[in-house]
From TrEMBL:
Cofactor needs: Mn(2+)
Protein name per the record: Protein-glutamate O-methyltransferase family protein
UniProt keyword annotations, A-Z: Hydrolase, Manganese, Metal-binding, Methyltransferase, Transferase
Lineage: Bacteria, Bacillati, Actinomycetota, Actinomycetes, Kitasatosporales
SUPFAM superfamilies: AF1104-like
Gene Ontology biological process: DNA damage response; methylation
One Pfam family per UniProt: ARMT1-like_dom
Entry-linked PANTHER family: DAMAGE-CONTROL PHOSPHATASE ARMT1
Source organism per UniProt: Streptomyces chartreusis
Protein family per UniProt: Belongs to the damage-control phosphatase family. Sugar phosphate phosphatase III subfamily.
Length: 393
């Protein structure tokens, strides 16, 4: 993307007291401690986790093993440039993403052996899926079945949007999700444009770039099922992560767990599950784990095949905070910078559904920004209490 002359610099994690700094200095060590307890890892795995714990705050970025299957890919993504530097002095997005790659290395996720393919975050993902809150959310679908189509559209869109609050990494460091602010929860709402891109004519292809498993993925799947049933889309491609990432990000195993949760639920939820099952088996719904989805770069740098694929979609919906950062570049834009400007490079119509959990934001009106700042200072940016639906048609 050619840079605008007023483009702010990419965020780093080097400012003590800032949100990015706290993620590197506090959230990452907490994640390692949590992973240590998640399985009875052997002494070698414990040593590797301890080394990462020391290294990720005090040390420097270490290279991947020479025989790592994805070493060349990470080199192309910048590993040689950043190796040997402090985690805090390189782009925050890169540093965080590489942390998860190194965490998988430490638990032996890629190496032949007993821990190969074992998702270190699976216990917490499954606990969430099994939680009584998930039952409550699914039983609410029964009452929705008799409501007018427009009301169902809105409920399922908002379910998917607010499902993004359920991010396990975020909960590790968010002391309280509540705010006393009386500012509206939605800071931008382009949902009319979103619906206008998906009329009930049945021809559209939706690309949904998923974020978290469990209580976010379930409503994402419900939204897809609803759009298929209403004829607003003919097919959907669900983009997930090729491996565990940012604690709760959805992998293919998580999609299958969520689907099983739906099909085994009572009432309307099971019907949604059956719709999805049928769509997967007849090819109207496909699941895609592109390597770039687990990468450390903004979408402006997506490779040609992905660009072509998303360019062919009627609409690409990006879920969540991290995808938003990757979509607009991980930069501290003035909040009133038009969303359409910073996403002009994207190969087709694009929508962001996101709760606000990091400083990056674009597309606010002057009035909304002023009201948020007057009520909360800058807390609205990271508290997860506000959300947005932004669309560039
Ligand atoms: O993408 P998600 O799940 O909505 O949020 C991811 C998140 O919790 O992790 C990043 C910090 O580690 C931030 O982008 C955000 O706070």
């Amino acid at each position: 993307m050619p840079e605008r002359s007023d483009t702010p610099p990419v965020l780093l994690g080097n400012e003590p007291g800032s949100f990015p700094h706290s993620v590197l200095a506090e959230r990452h060590p907490a994640i390692i401690r949590q992973v240590r307890e998640s399985f009875p890892y052997d002494p070698e795995r414990h040593r590797a986790l301890d080394a990462l714990l020391a290294g990720c705050t005090e040390g420097v970025i270490e290279p991947l093993p020479a025989d790592a299957h994805d070493r060349d890919r990470w080199t192309a993504w910048g590993a040689d440039v950043y190796t040997g530097r402090s985690w805090f002095e390189v782009p925050w997005l890169w540093s965080e993403s590489y942390f998860y790659r190194q965490l998988l290395e430490a638990v032996g996720y890629f190496a032949p052996g007993p821990w190969q393919g074992i998702d270190p975050f699976r216990p917490s993902k499954l606990a969430e899926l099994d939680a009584p809150e998930t039952d409550e959310e699914l039983s609410a679908l029964d009452a929705l079945a008799d409501r007018p189509a427009g009301e169902q559209d809105r409920a399922l869109l908002h379910g998917s949007l607010w499902g993004n609050r359920a991010d396990l990494g975020f909960r590790l460091s968010a002391a309280s999700g509540e705010t006393s602010s009386d500012t509206p929860p939605l800071v931008a709402d382009d949902s009319d444009t979103l619906w206008s891109l998906l009329p009930p004519s049945g021809a559209a292809t939706l690309a949904l770039i998923a974020d978290n498993a469990g209580r976010e993925l379930v409503p994402d799947l419900l939204l897809i099922a609803h759009l298929l049933t209403q004829g607003r889309i003919a097919r959907a491609v669900l983009h997930i992560k090729p491996y565990p990432y940012y604690v709760s990000d959805a992998t293919h195993a998580d999609v299958l767990d969520a689907l099983r949760r739906l099909t085994s639920a009572p009432g309307a939820a099971a019907a949604y599950g059956r719709t999805l099952w049928a769509a997967l088996t007849d090819g109207r719904l496909t699941v895609r784990a592109h390597p770039f989805s687990g990468g450390p770069l903004p979408y402006a740098e997506m490779p040609g095949d992905l660009r072509e694929e998303l360019g062919a979609a009627t609409l690409t919906v990006l879920k969540g905070d991290l995808n938003y950062r990757r979509l607009v570049g991980d930069r501290l834009w003035p909040p009133t910078t038009p969303f359409a400007d910073v996403t002009a490079y994207f190969p087709g119509p694009v929508a962001a559904l996101r709760t606000l959990k990091s400083d990056v934001i674009t597309g606010l009106s002057d009035r909304t920004e002023a009201a948020l700042v007057a009520a909360e200072g800058q807390k609205w940016r990271t508290g997860g209490t506000h959300a947005l639906i932004q669309v560039r048609a």
